[in-house]
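Lecture notes, continued. The same structure-token format from the folding unit now serves as the input rather than the output. Read the line below as a description of shape only.
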């Protein structure tokens, strides 16, 4: 039971006590909402073992002590812990993953410099920590004291000499290489297409190299070298949706993208096209089926039309990348309605039943139509029900 728990929401109650170390056993937990209670004590170290966690909200409690190693949870997109008594340094998260309103450590006892925020977040997320300093707060950090010179520093050691000589050697080799490059004849044989294909590089991290296409100006993790675009004509397959008419693969790569979440099969980005159209693009990793099979499944899924099934708009398939494009649904998911709305009582039992009936109807239709192709949903959960 505990092993398969994915969402735990205890918010806005009067619960006191500390979070037990055993929370680390809930390995499937993706959403943990404990805000607005009277929890106290320090956060257990085992919290950092919840590697599937996407949303953590422990705001408005009495937690204290230092934070466990939470940055190791790479898929976190919500991190709210304002209005507690937590202390120590702010860890170096992957701040690119957080929207402004989804990261907040205000009104605690944190101290020291704020880590580099990669251009994200504002002072609002950090106010109320009297010993916190650095951007984006207006309090500058005091200069770190210069290390005292030691006796060892004043006399050059053998180790020091070794590095000086090593430096000379490297410089010498570099000059020889430069000269060699200058005098080697430049008439290289023309590279065949096959050779270029062998050189395709997919870089999973943003790179500063200027000849790269970007998916998301500087916020996404997807980038692809120009080699791939040179050998792969735009193979983005636009399905029947009029929304993405004339959509090109390059349009996706150039558009700003924001991470919406990370799942088992990859990351999902909100992508805003030049035209203003907003898409949700899933970058698939480890699907475990062949490119051919993926194509055939998507084309079949596209033929199953039902008002409650969100069809893919387009997909892109190459050896290096598999992208699935959907229309962005701006009204949020069932999970948000159930767990994040201020006034959940608005979601009355009549509405809940009607949502459940719509889901069942859509699922039954899809499974009937795709029965022969053996395609089932296989991952039904409240975050996958969109309004
Ligand atoms: N078309 C969409 N528009 C808006 N939000 C979406 C859309 N599709 C998914 N989301 C939201 O984005 C988040 C991530 O979605 P995703 O489908 O990647 O999750 P997942 O089903 O857990 O992934 P996986 O199948 O890889 O395990 C979810 O919170 C979901 O509600």
């Amino acid at each position: 039971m505990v092993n398969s728990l994915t969402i735990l929401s205890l918010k806005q109650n009067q619960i006191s006590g500390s979070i037990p170390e055993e929370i680390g056993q809930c390995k499937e937990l993706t959403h943990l909402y404990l805000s607005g209670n009277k929890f106290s004590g320090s956060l257990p170290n085992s919290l950092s073992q919840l590697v599937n966690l996407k949303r953590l909200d422990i705001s408005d409690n009495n937690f204290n002590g230092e934070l466990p190693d939470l940055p190791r949870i790479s898929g976190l997109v919500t991190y709210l812990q304002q209005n507690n008594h937590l202390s120590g340094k702010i860890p170096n998260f992957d701040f690119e993953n957080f929207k402004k309103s989804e990261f907040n450590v205000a009104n605690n006892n944190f101290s020291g410099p704020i880590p580099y925020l990669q251009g994200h977040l504002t002072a609002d997320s950090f106010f109320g920590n009297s010993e916190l300093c650095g951007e984006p707060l207006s309090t500058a950090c005091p200069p770190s004291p210069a290390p005292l010179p030691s006796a060892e520093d004043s006399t050059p050691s053998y180790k020091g000499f070794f590095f000086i000589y090593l430096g000379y050697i490297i410089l010498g080799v570099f000059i020889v290489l430069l000269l060699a490059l200058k005098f080697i004849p430049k008439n290289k044989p023309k590279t065949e297409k096959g050779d270029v294909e062998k050189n395709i590089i997919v870089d999973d991290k943003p790179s500063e190299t200027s000849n790269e296409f970007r998916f998301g100006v500087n916020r996404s993790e997807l980038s692809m070298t120009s080699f791939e675009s040179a050998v792969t004509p735009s193979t983005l397959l636009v399905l029947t949706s009029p929304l993405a008419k004339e959509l090109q693969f390059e349009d996706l790569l150039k558009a700003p993208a924001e991470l919406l979440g990370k799942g088992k099969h990859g990351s999902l980005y909100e992508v805003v096209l030049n035209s203003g159209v907003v898409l949700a693009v899933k970058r698939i990793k480890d699907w475990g089926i062949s490119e051919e099979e993926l194509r055939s499944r998507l084309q079949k899924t596209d033929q199953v039309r039902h008002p409650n099934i969100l069809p893919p708009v387009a997909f892109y398939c190459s050896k290096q990348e598999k992208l699935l494009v959907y229309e962005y649904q701006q009204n949020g998911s069932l999970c948000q309605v159930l767990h994040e709305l201020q006034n959940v009582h608005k979601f009355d039992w009549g509405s809940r039943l009607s949502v459940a009936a719509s889901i069942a109807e859509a699922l039954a239709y899809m499974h009937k139509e795709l029965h022969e192709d053996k395609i089932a949903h296989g991952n039904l959960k409240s975050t996958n029900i969109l309004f």
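Point for the exam: Helices lie at 151-154, 158-183, 193-198, 226-231, 249-254, 291-303, 334-339, 349-369.
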